[in-house]
Structure formats: C-alpha cells, structure tokens
Amino acid sequence: MKKIFFAAAFFVSGSLFFSETVDEILKVYCDLDRVPDYNYSSIAIDNISKNGSVEHMEVEQFGGGANGLKNTVFAFKSPSTVKDTRILQAEKISKEDDQWVFMPALRTTRRIAPGDKGKPFVGTELTYNDLSLRKEHDDKNEIISQSESVTVNGVTYDCWKMKSVPVKKNTVEYGYRISWFDKKSYIPVRIEFYDKKNASKLIKTYEVEKLEQVKGATGMTYWLRRQNLVTNIETGRKTRVTVKEYVFDKKISDGYFTQNWLTTGKAR
C-alpha cells in the first residue's frame, strides 16, 4: 500500500466504500487496483513568489508499470531554463524508490541520493520526497478526529483528521503530517507538515483546490485532483499544480520508463 504525492496517482483514486479505521481508510486511499495501469497528464506548474510574481512551467507526465509496481516519468517542456529536464521514478517493493534526473545543460544523468530527497523538485515547493511512494509501514498513523470539517478553495469537506509520524525521521524533511481525508473521495484535501525540532511549527501545507470525478478509456471512474496548491509557510512561496489534460487506462509504451528515454527523450 502506498501514498503518492506528485506522480499520476497523486491525482486519482477509484470507487470507494465506507470505513472508519486507520487501516481501512488507508487501504481505500492506497489500493493499487484503483489506480490506472497507464496514465498521461499535461501539467502546468506555477511557482508564485511572496510578492505575487509567477514562474510558469509546462510538464508532461507518463505513468505505468507491471506486477503492481508503478513507474513515473516527467518531461519538462518549458521554460528554457528547465526544458528537456527529465525525471524517472521506479517503485521498489522492499526498499526506497529509485529516482534519476537527466540534466540537459550537463548532458548527464544522476541518481537522486536518499540524502537529497528533501531538496526542492526543479525549483518548486515540492521535494523529491513528495514524489516518492510512501508505503503503509513508513508511518505511524492515528485518527485524531472522526468528523471534522475543512474548507478548501470555497468547498467544505466532511473529513477524518489523521496524524502521520514517519518511522524513519531522518528520511524526510518534516516531523509529522496532519491530513484531512474527505469522506466521499477518501482523498486528503489538506495536509499540514510540521517541523522536526519544533513540533508546533507549521512549515508547509498542501491543498486540493479542485477535485472532480472523471472516466478513463475503459469507463472506470477516478477522482482527479485537478488543481493543487503547496505553500511554504516560512518563505511565503507557493507552487500550484494544475492538470490541463489527461488520459487514463490507455496503454503507454514501456520505452518511456527506461534509461534510454531519460537520456534521449525517445521511447523506442
């Protein structure tokens, strides 16, 4: 079971049933059978400074895999400062996911080391950890409220409020998370990240600004997080991620999830 922050499954989730325990909520949210086998998204990323200036980026994302494992790749299309930057993430069962990044200016590919996964993802307020797939045993989870309302972007959700403490605190850049899981979709519509040294200090928030149900190519229904906002409380910087176009359940060539694609941008 897993929790995915920015990969394709970060945006989707399938048909759901009612449950109230931590294990049942996470099972519904993380169930791989409810994530498309293949997915494509055209994504806009806006980095918003404290004074309101915006840096706009365009990204293509492809997701797919076999044997229940999911691979994800990102191809940055603009601006020129990040154009042709490509990232490959491969899920592993019993160890941390592998992540590689191709840097066009240097024409080199490097693996993201575990100690670097808390660093910003291509200049955004997301980190490489936010891309990673968190397995069920990675956190100690507890429900701290069975019914709590939270309003995000003018929409009020009835939620379970959950606290998640990483088992290996040295692997992430925060001390713990507080999440509001919408009871209709089982999607966390708001997540707060707190400081390692000062447990009361909020350092970052994530909010689903637009949530909707969509259908894949096979007719299966998914919850799509159409627009998401990450806010750095300390700096005032924000990153808004918007899914512009999407295709779910339509086969994608395995050639995208290779080192060859990473270095050439071509899926053979």
Q: Your description of this structure?
A:
The protein is mainly β and 268 residues long. Helices cover 7% and strands 48% of the residues. The chain is built from 3 helices and 15 strands. It has helices at 22-30, 128-131, 259-264; strands spanning 2-4, 38-48, 54-64, 71-78, 86-90, 98-103, 108-111, 133-135, 139-152, 155-166, 176-182, 188-194, 202-215, 221-232, 238-248. The strands form 2 sheets. Strands 7-6-5-4-3-2-15-14-13-12-11-10-9 form a 13-stranded antiparallel sheet. The chain has a two-stranded antiparallel sheet with strand order 1-8. β12 and β13 form a beta hairpin. Residues 1-19 have low confidence and may be disordered.
Summarize the SSE layout with pairings.
Layout lengths: L1 E3 L17 H9 L7 E11 L5 E11 L6 E8 L7 E5 L7 E6 L4 E4 L16 H4 L1 E3 L3 E14 L2 E12 L9 E7 L5 E7 L7 E14 L5 E12 L5 E11 L10 H6 L4
Antiparallel strand pairs: 1-8, 2-3, 2-15, 3-4, 4-5, 5-6, 6-7, 9-10, 10-11, 11-12, 12-13, 13-14, 14-15
Strand order of the largest sheet: 7-6-5-4-3-2-15-14-13-12-11-10-9
User: What is the helical fraction, as a range of percent?
Assistant: under 10%
User: How would you classify the helix and strand content by structural class?
Assistant: mainly beta
Task: Give a count of the beta strands, DSSP E runs of length 2 or more.
Answer: 15
Mean pLDDT: 86
Shape: globular
Largest β sheet strand count, sense and barrel closure: 13 strands, antiparallel
- Radius of gyration, whole Å: 18 Å
